[in-house]
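User: Teach me something about this protein's shape.
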Amino acid sequence: MTLHITQSHGTIRGRVGGILGGFNVVCDIADRRLYGRMGGTLRGADLDVQITPTKLTGRAGGSIDGKDIDLSVSGRHLSGRVGGEVFGKDLLLEVTDGAHNGSKGAISGRTGGGTLGFDINLHFNDGQLVGRLGGEVIGHDVRITYEPTVHPLLAGFVACMTYYYYRLLNRRNVNASGGSSN
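Assistant: First, the predicted structure itself:
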């Protein structure tokens, strides 16, 4: 039996990044809605996304400094835009290995362009999502657990959004302190 993304329900939780350089994440999925928190109370963002058979739409962050999410769902793929047409980033996630319903396999893809984006290299196995977002030097490790009723592509999406938002906050902090974003 194949688990469609709209049939997902349950909890996604874990960490993207290390003890000093990353975010905890806890999200729930119920009634075709994914919602939760990336990061802590003071330094982090809410995630609120509606799930339909063909789209993921919603918002990461607040109404002023948040990012819109508009992704298409197509079988083993999520693709689209996070953050709007002008300042946004493209996102592509694909289950590249393993069963569609996901007891074991891999998720790969990219967020952003060739220069300022990051690679996605994740592996899932019976409710565990591990791997790396970004490069070997600057990237972050991913350690996330999810319930068997959650499609692994949604767990991968939550990991990517957490890392994307972490990078966005760090770039703002560097710019605010007079440094550069590169």
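Now, about its shape. Confidence is low (pLDDT under 50) at residues 173-182. The chain has one domain: 5-176. If you'd like, I can walk through any region in more detail.
User: That's plenty for now, thanks!
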